[in-house]
Structures are given as C-alpha cells and as structure tokens.
Design goal:
By secondary structure, this protein is of the alpha+beta class. The chain has two domains: 19-149, Jelly Rolls, CATH 2.60.120.10; 160-237, Arc Repressor Mutant, subunit A (Orthogonal Bundle), CATH 1.10.10.10. It is 41% helix and 22% strand. The protein has nine helices and ten strands. The strands form three sheets. The protein has a four-stranded antiparallel beta sheet. Helix 7 (191-197) crosses helix 8 (202-214).
C-alpha cells in the first residue's frame, strides 16, 4: 500500500468527537467545534502488519493519529541499518517531531499489527496550533515525551549488554503494549523484529530468549511470549553492563 494514499472510510464509527473513548490526550478536553473541525479534515486508512505508514525522506501531508493497533518508529544510521527509536499503540499521534520540523520525515513508521490510522490535514493542524493553546501545549508535551523515550532507547541499546537489552525490551513491550488475558505480551513479533527493537542479531535474540525461558522468567510459544516472573526480568534488567 502506498504511504501517500489515504482512503476515506465512511464506515468508520470512530470520530474525533469520541476518539476511542476520548483517551487520545491531545483531543481530550477540546470543545465540540474543535473536534468537529478535525473530524471534517481527516481521512482514515487501514494497514496490514508490516505496512509502512510513512517513510524517511518523504514529506508529511498531515499529522497521523494511530486509532487502533501497534507501530514502531525506526531511523537509519549512516550505514543504512535500522534502529528502533519508539514504540506506540493506540490512541496516539505519531511522527510529531517530523511533522513540526517542516522537513521530510527523518523516520519510518512500520505497522506491528493490523491498524487503523487517521491523517489530519496540515491546514487543520496548523489552525489548531495557531488558535488553540491547549492543543499546542499537548502537542509539545507529546514531542518532549517521544524525544525522551527515543533518547533513552538509543542510550540503552548502545551502553547495555545483550542479556540486559533483552530483559529491557521485554519489559518495555509489557509497558507499551500490555498483556493479554493469558499473560502474553499483547503483540506478536517475529524474532527478527525483536532483534531490531533491541539492536541485536536474530541468533543472539533466540539464544537469550531461550535462556530466559529456561530460567522460567518467560514462556515461549511460537510468536507468543508469556511473562512468568516479571521480578526476575527486572532483576536481569538492573545490571548496567
């Protein structure tokens, strides 16, 4: 699916006035007129796992709101290797820094599950930024939070050893995506995707996950990872090197 093609979905039951029970922090508290204006200037698209919402070096056409599903944000180093800077689930605005910069995207957004995402037109976003201080402050808060999270991730994956990175990554996945009713991390990832998230090769990821499985910190079942002993993961994560 082209990342520049957005398809209006007239069957979509979600709008900016209800936005998934108003849990989008940027929309919560906005008045009816503001929400209606955003609603009139949005388009919703559906994406499959592995699809790209936006790609490095392309220009933003608006601001993305992740309505349902899970994504990761990656950047490329000078050698073309991908590094994961952020993980997001619904409901959240994504690509905020890239949008506000006025420059081409400096990151790529990849779907980790089937998702729905809204694109709010630039003209509507700019009107909100210029005329609504509540929206503007929350947008800046989102930007600061994302930058803090990405800085911490980059520091962790360069300064910590592999067993600590694996434990950190599993705990981060729990924090961001939560657990399903069976205690599994609520996102199903290939070993290659986990390797990308913790900046390791796939062979080392398999080895360290197997070690945690033998320690009964986790239980591996195909792409499912069940958390058996969170405190043990936290203990493994506590080593700085």
């Amino acid at each position: 699916m082209s990342f520049n093609k957005y398809i209006n979905d007239p069957q979509c039951s979600t709008n900016c006035s209800s936005c998934t029970k108003n849990i989008n922090p940027l929309l919560n508290g906005l008045n009816v007129n503001d929400r209606s204006m955003l609603d009139e200037n949005r388009m919703m698209s559906t994406y499959k796992k592995g699809d790209i919402l936006f790609r490095e070096n392309t220009f933003p056409a608006g601001l993305f709101c992740l309505n349902s599903g899970k994504v990761m944000i990656t950047v490329s180093d000078t050698n073309g290797n991908k590094i994961v800077t952020n993980l997001h689930k619904e409901v959240n605005f994504i690509g905020v820094a890239d949008y506000l910069s006025g420059l081409p995207y400096q990151s790529t957004c990849i779907a980790l599950s089937d998702i729905n995402a809204c694109m709010i037109k630039s003209s509507a976003v700019e009107e909100m930024i210029n005329n609504n201080p509540i929206f503007s402050r929350r947008l800046l808060t989102t930007l600061a939070r994302d930058n803090h999270q990405s800085s911490k991730r980059l520091l962790d994956i360069t300064k910590k050893n592999m067993n600590v990175r694996i434990a950190d990554t599993l705990l981060e996945l729990v924090t961001v995506f939560g657990l399903d009713p069976n205690g599994n991390i609520d996102v199903y990832l290939k070993r290659s995707e986990i390797a990308l998230i913790c900046n390791m090769n796939e062979t080392n990821v398999i080895r360290h996950l197997s070690a945690l499985d033998k320690m009964e910190a986790i239980k591996l079942e195909a792409k499912k990872i069940r958390i058996l002993n969170k405190k043990l993961l936290e203990f493994e994560s506590s080593f700085s090197s």
